[in-house]
Amino acid sequence: MDTSNPQMGWISFIVWFLYVLVCDCVPLPDKEPPMHGEVQSPQYPQPYPPNLLKQWDLSVPEGFQIQLTFMHVDIEASGGCYYDSLTVLYDEKLLGKFCGNQNSADGHHPGHQPILSPGNRLTLILQTDDSNPERHQNVGFTAQYQAIDIDECSAPEPGDGSGPVCSQICLNTLGSYLCSCYHGYELRSDQRTCMLSCSDGIFDEPKGHLFSPGYPNPLLHPMSCQYIISVESGFTVSLNFSDNFHIESVDTEEGPICLYHWLQMSIPDKKPMKFCGGTSPGVIETNSSTVMLDYHVDGQGMSNGWSLDYHTHRVKCPMPGKVPRGRVTPSLEEYFYRDQIYVRCDQGYKLMMGGQEIERYSTMCQKNSQWHLPLPECHIIDCGEPEPLLNGGVTFLSGSLNQYLSVVQYHCNEPFYSTLSGQNVSFTCDADRRWRSNSNDIVSITCLPVCGKPTDESYSFQRIIGGQDAADNSIPWQVLLNVGGRGGGMVIADKWILTAAHVVKQGESQATNKTLNIYMGLTDVNKLYKVPMRAASIHVHPEYNNPNNLNFDNDIALIKLQDRLTFNASIMPVCLPAEDATYTTGMMGQVSGFGITKSAGGEKILTNKLKYVQVPVVDDEICGESITSLQKTRRNVPYLTNNMFCAGVPDGGKDSCQGDSGGPFTLTDPNTEQFWAAGIVSWGVDCGLQGTYGVYTKVANYMDWINKIIDDNNDNNIKSNE
Ligand SMILES: *[C@@H]1O[C@H](CO)[C@@H](O)[C@H](O)[C@H]1NC(C)=O
Ligand SMILES: *[C@@H]1O[C@H](CO)[C@@H](O)[C@H](O)[C@H]1NC(C)=O
Ligand SMILES: *[C@@H]1O[C@H](CO)[C@@H](O)[C@H](O)[C@H]1NC(C)=O
Ligand SMILES: *[C@@H]1O[C@H](CO)[C@@H](O)[C@H](O)[C@H]1NC(C)=O
Ligand SMILES: *[C@@H]1O[C@H](CO)[C@@H](O)[C@H](O)[C@H]1NC(C)=O
């Protein structure tokens, strides 16, 4: 016994307890016969008396045999034990009749071989006569007996045709025996013989073998057997009946029917099917993980039965189908339970499910032979609206809805803006959903203002003092400043105006963004004086120091506008000097402003029209001499420095004058025909007098300062495209 099994221990305890209970409370009705004993003749070892007839009935417990062993036999010997004898009987059956002793020639001595009774009883009879010879006294016998277990199983088959003790398996036990049957049989109620039985049960292994009782021999008694094959869900059972199939059918007019014998197959949710006849159903795909088989035969008829192998398949899912613009992987002939598929979209397409974009997709074939998710869709990707371009635009060249491979083209608003290359740039919507430039090096595009290229030209060559009214849009960078008095300036970037320092700073008083009014875009002051633009900051050159109007060195200032300008025909920047800018003597420049001019009558008046005049650059030495000679005759004539240059004609009559200060003196680049800001109107002695020249701040000397101020105050302002 497995004592480690607590349940068994408990059962042992109960058995013990019941045993104690039985012994204590209910005395056994009959004393069990002894397991052994001794028997001897009367008066042994004294001689037995004559005329004796004594019988001993020995018995041992049921299920045992008696083994009798003589220790000593000394009975008067006679032929055939005629006078005295010890007879040993099993019921009526004579087991031996003994007399004599070990040495006697007559008589029949049992020897030392024990006597075995066929059963648990034994009878001994001692019979003596009266003719005991005086000379020899016989002492009789003494014997011991003991219970011996009968091996009922090896008992020979009785001749009465009742068959062996057990029809199949016999198990000898102490004092008894048990019969048992082979697999497929069961013990009848006689506890001795076996009959075929159903090997009922549940078959849950993935494959197995089943057969009807006794197959392929007919069954001779009625029987109903049930077999259940039930495997893991997600698998289906397939039955394969062997060819040797025979179940009695009854022929009727409508054909054979399964009336008394049948095999019924039941599948959940399906109508049961009955099989009989002599033809094997062959292979049956049940499409179910559970199948019940009921085999029924009655006591009549001869059905040899059936046998089958079953095995299981994973359930099959429907073919997933195709995803337009996508790929389903892996691509198989069939898909079964637990198979997984993935869907990837072609380049330029994205996975969509239920109106939502999803990053990845997979689905699995489930137990119920369905995919756990429906297939996704592949939708073309789009790059979204292309970013708008400041001072430019975007046009669609091909494709639609900003979808994959759509091409758009950016352009700048010509002629006021252009790209760095001057070319329009195309972008294509790529698979990463980005607008990607067709030329790999371009990441983004900016529209740079075009400088120094007015849409309209001034044709005549006249004077400010001696100048000419400027045509609309011919000097679109011209700025009119008003800080109590008039001043000029020029647009150099979409937030920057260049002017002379003395325009915004008189002595110690500097204009503020409240006091400084800025106008541009028109040539008529009356039309200009509407809403002024405002400055965000004013930057006077740090080395400008002119308390008495005698030192115009570094007469340069920058004004940052609060609002960014959008350039058009009437407002455009002038170019800044190139690095290698040269001021060639005699080169014609253009100076412009709303300053003092001369009336037809010769008196000086402040003009309301933008005027311009063409004057040549004057040699520094000649100009220096002119200043020096003036200083001899006049007081308070400022000095000429390297940061200045002169322009004008020796005859006079053409010049800039008060009110023009801060305005542009432009030269034209002979290659590009662009106007560039060579000078800022700074000072002069009188205006347009013979032998005097206008003096201008030499802008080329200040490029580092200008760039630094603009960079330091950069809020993504765009410098002009030179
Ligand atoms: C059915 O069983 C027979 C005999 O064992 C075998 O030859 C046959 O291949 C089986 N059929 C199927 C479909 O398993
Ligand atoms: C199982 O499915 C197959 C294919 O759909 C079908 O032919 C067969 O009849 C089904 N089996 C049963 C028992 O319904
Ligand atoms: C750039 O695009 C504009 C507007 O689409 C078009 O008018 C212009 O001709 C284009 N320029 C070039 C160089 O293709
Ligand atoms: C005006 O100018 C000052 C100094 O130049 C500057 O700090 C301030 O922000 C400006 N005000 C406005 C409203 O732009
Ligand atoms: C240029 O722009 C200014 C400011 O937006 C506007 O007042 C002016 O009318 C424009 N000129 C032309 C020629 O479009």
At CATH level 2, the architecture of the largest domain is Beta Barrel
Query: What small-molecule ligands were found?
Result: 2-acetamido-2-deoxy-beta-D-glucopyranose
Main sheet? 6 strands, antiparallel, barrel
Q: CATH-wise, what's the superfamily of the largest domain?
A: Trypsin-like serine proteases
Number of strands: 54
Count of distinct structural domains: 5
Shape: rod-shaped
Strand content: 35-45%
Q: Which fold does the CATH topology of the largest domain refer to? A: Thrombin, subunit H
Taking pLDDT < 50 over at least 5 consecutive residues as the criterion, the unreliable ranges are 1-28
Mean pLDDT: 86
Q: Strand arrangement, largest sheet?
A: 47-50-51-54-53-52
The CATH class of the largest domain, by name, is Mainly Beta
Radius of gyration using CA atoms only: 67 Å
Span between N and C termini? 108 Å
Structural class, by secondary structure, is mainly beta
Q: Given the structure, what is the number of helices?
A: 5
Fraction of residues in H or I helices = under 10%
Protein described:
The protein is mainly β. It folds into five domains: 36-150, Jelly Rolls, CATH 2.60.120; 198-314, Jelly Rolls (Sandwich); 316-380, Complement Module, domain 1, CATH 2.10.70.10; 392-449, Complement Module, domain 1; 478-712, Trypsin-like serine proteases (Thrombin, subunit H, Beta Barrel). Helix content is 7%, strand content 36%. The chain contains five helices and 54 strands. A hairpin with a 6-residue loop joins strand 19 (262-266) and strand 20. The longest helix has 20 residues, at 6-25. The radius of gyration is 67 Å and the shape is rod-shaped. One 2-acetamido-2-deoxy-beta-D-glucopyranose binds at residues 240, 283, 309.
